[in-house]
């Protein structure tokens, strides 16, 4: 399905990536699970920073970044500024190499303003109250 030559991106929340990698590490399947995040031509990790990571979890997520570096595209969505990533990854020292690899060959798109999903939801709620 889809356009010839196009690849469907793989989209996961940071929480899901963390959970999958943590479980894989505990069951001795980390190398195999990492492969699922290295294979797609485009990996989208959503909600980076929504839930802070413990250091061990951050180390697991970090393993994906350098392995994809210059091999496949990665898109991250976050409502955190880069200066807050030390808190996101539980360690400013760990956040630095993550940002270094991500920002080396990238385009940063900063979107300011109300959340698209929240805007639509609020409009729907307002429509419901107007009808009542």
TrEMBL record:
<dbReference type="InterPro" id="IPR027417">
    <property type="entry name" value="P-loop_NTPase"/>
</dbReference>
<feature type="domain" description="IstB-like ATP-binding">
    <location>
        <begin position="14"/>
        <end position="123"/>
    </location>
</feature>
<dbReference type="GO" id="GO:0005524">
    <property type="term" value="F:ATP binding"/>
</dbReference>
<dbReference type="Pfam" id="PF01695">
    <property type="entry name" value="IstB_IS21"/>
</dbReference>
<protein>
    <recommendedName>
        <fullName>IstB-like ATP-binding domain-containing protein</fullName>
    </recommendedName>
</protein>
<dbReference type="InterPro" id="IPR002611">
    <property type="entry name" value="IstB_ATP-bd"/>
</dbReference>
């Amino acid at each position: 399905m889809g356009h010839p030559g196009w690849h469907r991106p793989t989209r996961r929340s940071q929480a899901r990536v963390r959970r999958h990698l943590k479980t894989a590490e505990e069951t001795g399947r980390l190398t195999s699970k990492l492969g699922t995040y290295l294979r797609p031509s485009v990996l989208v990790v959503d909600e980076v920073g929504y839930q802070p990571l413990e250091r061990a979890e951050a180390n697991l997520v970090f393993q994906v970044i350098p392995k994809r570096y210059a091999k496949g595209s990665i898109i991250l969505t976050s409502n955190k500024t880069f200066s807050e990533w030390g808190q996101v990854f539980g360690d400013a020292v760990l956040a630095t190499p993550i940002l270094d690899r991500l920002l080396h060959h990238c385009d940063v798109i900063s979107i300011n303003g109300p959340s698209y999903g929240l805007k639509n939801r609020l409009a729907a709620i307002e429509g419901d109250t107007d009808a009542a």
